[in-house]
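Work Package 3 (structural annotation) set out to generate three-dimensional models for the target panel prioritized at the project kickoff. During this period the team completed the workflow that converts sequence records into discrete structure tokens, so that structures can be stored uniformly alongside our sequence database. As a representative example, we reproduce one entry of 347 residues exactly as it appears in the project archive.
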Amino acid sequence: MPSTTDNMLRLLRCSLNGLTADGVDWDDKEWERLFWLARRHGLVTMVNDAIELLPDAQKPQGDIALSWTLSADRTRYHYAHQKEVLESIDRKAREQGLRYVLLKGMSLSRFYPTPDSRPCGDIDIMFPGNFEKGNALLGHPEAKAVGKHSEMEIDGVTVENHRQMLDLNYESQWEAEDYILQSLHPVPDNHFLPPMANMVYLLMHTVSHLTARNKLPLRNVIDWGMFLRANRAELDPDECRRIVKKLGMAQSFALFTQIASDITGSDLSAFINEPVRQKDRARMLDLILNQTFVESVPKDLPFAARTLARLRRYRKRRWLYRYLPYSPRERFRATVGLKRKKRQLPL
């Protein structure tokens, strides 16, 4: 019997491909389990799109049906409000002659069949070479960057103004950052990263979730698949593989592309040329779908205890490290707690 996770992924694929699921005969308890699982992964609205295509007799009934509908309506309302805030930012940017690029969620929603079904937690924006002017345009001239961006609230919407694209903790991230920024001379009129630069950005951003917390939201993998599917004509698979190989991310590119293909029901075989380890594929799927994360090592441990805990974590997740954006040398330094060499920001 298919699990609740299998049922959710089945409805999700139908939603992303405009198909009607057949043979749906689930009781109220399964619909409730489905709702809470979809909510856990931030997919209620996308899955609800598939539910709306079902015959009335196969749809959830009663209170759980109301839960699906109200949750989907909230997502669409929030998305519409974010668009209004973004339109206001765009007007100010045009008036001041400042160019910007839109990143992540809001920029990727256009690749979905129903853009406002893709929940967007905040607006990620970058004014290349004009971080401080961007803060001023957004009404927060004194905002300071914490990590790679400053964060502010505009009319109830969180806006993150990026001074850099990536975390820049490893050499491959610096190389990717340089590649992306070079593509922004000049900044595109459509406010989106060029497809090849966006490919590099999305891959490195997706993997960064694993380096930061050993977790990867399912929605990020779906984004990757929908992006590749929508940009198949603009992306040269050979050039993609050349770039990711140079970054040391060829195995990651192949693994996440295969997983995204399976989850979204998209034919992405043209991009897959690197052998994908089946055992690692199963492990990564388990990590994504079941959120089997590794707990962070407490920072207040003595140096020896902290190093030992890191070594234990390394042993537990050593299979994962071949897909992360650092060299063995950088992994060793991080494991034993050695500080990284600091470099000047590119902006």
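The chain is about 55% helix and 5% strand.
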